[in-house]
Structures are given as structure tokens and as C-alpha cells.
Amino acid sequence: MEDTFRHKGLRKRLVETLKSKGIKDETVLEAINLIPRHFFLDKAFEEKAYEDQAMPIDEGQTISQPYTVAYQTELLMPKKRIKILEIGTGSGYQAAILGIMGARVYTVERHELLYQKAKKIIDSLGLLNVRCYFGDGNKGLGEFAPFDRILLTCAATEIPQLLLKQLSIGGMMVLPLGDSNFQIMTRVTKLTEDEFKYEKFDKFRFVPFLSGKNEIN
């Protein structure tokens, strides 16, 4: 995999596009500028890697639109050294963005093929603070809880209560919440063990949040 001057130039243009759409956090924009998105796509889609649109990956999934990645990341407010649980590794691009920002990332993928591909790319980027797991995202990673942040990159019809239990006091969960037609990006802040603050933002469309694991036969 090669990251050429042309690719870097296209990323700078993408950053300007995201700024024009309302992304303000400079640390998020810098992360977008640093991570080669074309590494996470099949060669056939390389020419479109820096367009602001979702692209297909294996298992009927997608790599999210860069604006969506930046939007969720901005809402999550990641900081260096905090623990983030991501549910839905997909291509691995979102995890890499969080990793380059200095967070300790634990990312779970239910499709074994996607898990293997994402882990290979993340390892090749030298992101030692990003740990990939093949498993059922509904269960989270209780052995590493509590987490300062939890991010869902798939559509939930309700807030996963087991994941809320794995969130630290003062921590935040960002997830697309709604039915199959569209979801409202929602941020949940855990004030105490029993008290939560709910904030609703813009509409999006994500692939559904599913249970179980899809192993390679």
C-alpha cells in the first residue's frame, strides 16, 4: 500500500470539504488528514476514496462517509489516553481515526472477514493503541470495562443497556438510534450509575446493529 503526494493532496481537499459542512474540531480534521482512507478500500474504489461518500466493503457493509466519521468523532470528544470501545469495526477506518488521535481503542467486529482485514491494515499503520476483537458487539468487552467512551457505528433500535453498564461515570456513548429508515445521532452521558443525560442531533442512515458472530466457513 502506498500513500502518494496525490493521495495526500486529495485528503487536504477532503478536509476542506468537511470544514465547509460544519466540522470544526481541528484535532478531528487533522486525524482525517493523516489516515490514508484508500488503504481501507478495495483497489477498484481507490479513485473515489477521498470523495465524501460511503463505499461498499465486504459482507454487505460499508465504510462510512467521511463526514459521518468526522461528525461521530466530534460528538465523542476523544482525548489522548482515554479508553474507547467501538462497536462495529467494519473497514477499521473509524478505529484508525480514533487511534491516531491518541485514544486507547478497543474495537469489536462480528464479521470475521472484516475483523481480519481491519486488523491487518491497522497493524500495518503501526497503531499499537488500537486493539481489534472478533465478537458479538452486543456483549461489549466487559473484561476491559469501564470505558470512557463507547461508539456504535451501526444502527440501534434502542440503547444497549449492557453497554451502558460498561461506560464509566462521566463517560459518553454516541450511537445512531432509530428504525431501518433513518436514525437520530444520539449522545448519552452517564452522570451516575442510574442517571443519564440524553442529547439528540442530526439524522443518518447506518447498517443495523446485529447480534452474534459471522465466522468464515
Provide a descriptive summary of the structure in words.
With 217 residues, the protein is of the alpha/beta class. It has a single domain (51-204), classed as Rossmann fold. The chain is 29% helix and 25% strand. It contains six helices and nine strands. The chain has helices at residues 5-20, 26-34, 66-76, 93-100, 112-124, 161-165; strands spanning 55-56, 62-63, 83-87, 104-109, 130-134, 147-152, 167-178, 183-190, 196-204. The strands form two sheets. It has a seven-stranded mixed sheet with strand order 5-4-3-6-7-8-9. Strands 1-2 form a two-stranded antiparallel sheet. Strand 7 (167-178) and strand 8 form a beta hairpin. The model has no long low-confidence stretch (mean pLDDT 96).
Structural class: alpha/beta
Distance between the termini: 28 Å
Strand order of the largest sheet: 5-4-3-6-7-8-9
| Rg calc | 16 Å
Beta-strand residue percentage: 25-35%
Order of helices and strands: HHEEHEHEHEEHEEE
**Class, according to the CATH hierarchy?**
Alpha Beta
Mean pLDDT: 96
The total of helices stands at 6
Number of strand segments: 9
Global geometry: globular
